[in-house]
Amino acid sequence: MNVVYRALILSRAQAAVGAARAVKGISHSGLKGRLREIVIRDLLRPLLPSDVGLGTGQIITAINQYSQEQDVVLFDRSILPPILHEGTTGVFPIESVLFAIEVKSTLTAERLKSSIESANQLRSLEYFPGEFDDSGKPIQLTTKRLIPAILAFDSDLSETGKTELERFKEIWGGSTDEPPIQMLCVVGRGLSTWKPEEPTIWRTWESTYLLEEVVTFMAFIMNSYKALALSRKSPRLGHYLLRPHQKCAVTSVK
């Protein structure tokens, strides 16, 4: 660990959390958008390379599937470009999406249930392959799917009662091997992460020192996004633009 580097990241996290808490009590329709902006601008954007972007909107597929609106989408524009409106709002081809982050001012059971439903819908979206043989036929490879996450600035749970991970497991029900939410971070409470390589194990970092959970959340994203992007290979934009079996005229050149 580099002490100076970590201190600079911690100061950025403190500023973001402080701003989020400052607007928490304001009853305004723009609050959710403000929280998104805080996460995008103050936490993640300075740590990402230019090809990796952050936005908000819907995730789409080449076969006309659409996600619910996502608070924060972390995507790699070098895989497939998004269509953006007003800077960071737009639609994002699923093959380029690496993380989908739900941002909550205060996490409640109702909001957690809604996030689980949204994440379950993300799992139903289909990815197109990113590698092809010499004849142009797709090669079926294992694609690492996007990681659904929650970042909440507070919780309605008692600090001496059940944990957020326990509540999540109760609501989720453990009906599949792969949980719909794979990163669960609540400021001041802790961070829990799931890894497909070890599907029976959740790792939890409690908030034992100032904003440990937020710094670890940021580090996990930075450590993971490249492997996710590389697994997507090179999907073709034509899948989004051309009609299936579209015919074209062929002319020989003498």
What are the main properties of this structure?
globular; 254 residues; alpha/beta
Terminal Cα separation, in Å?
Answer: 66 Å
Q: Which stretches are low in confidence, meaning pLDDT under 50 for 5 or more residues running?
A: none
> Using only CA atoms, what is the Rg?
20 Å
How many strands appear in the DSSP assignment? 9
The computed structural class is: alpha/beta
Order of helices and strands: HHEEEEEHEHEEEHH
User: What is the mean pLDDT?
Assistant: 90
Helix content: 25-40%
Strand order of the largest sheet: 3-4-1-2-5-6-7-8-9
Largest sheet: 9 strands, mixed
**Into which percentage range does the β-strand content fall?**
15-25%
Tell me the overall shape.
globular
* Tally of helical segments: 6
Q: What's the number of structural domains? A: 1
Q: What features would you describe in this structure?
A:
The chain has one domain. Helix content is 32%, strand content 20%. The protein contains 6 helices and 9 strands. The protein has a 9-stranded mixed sheet with strand order 3-4-1-2-5-6-7-8-9, sandwiched between helices. Helix 1 packs antiparallel against helix 2 and helix 3 (109-123) crosses helix 4. It starts with a helix and ends in a 13-residue tail after the last helix.
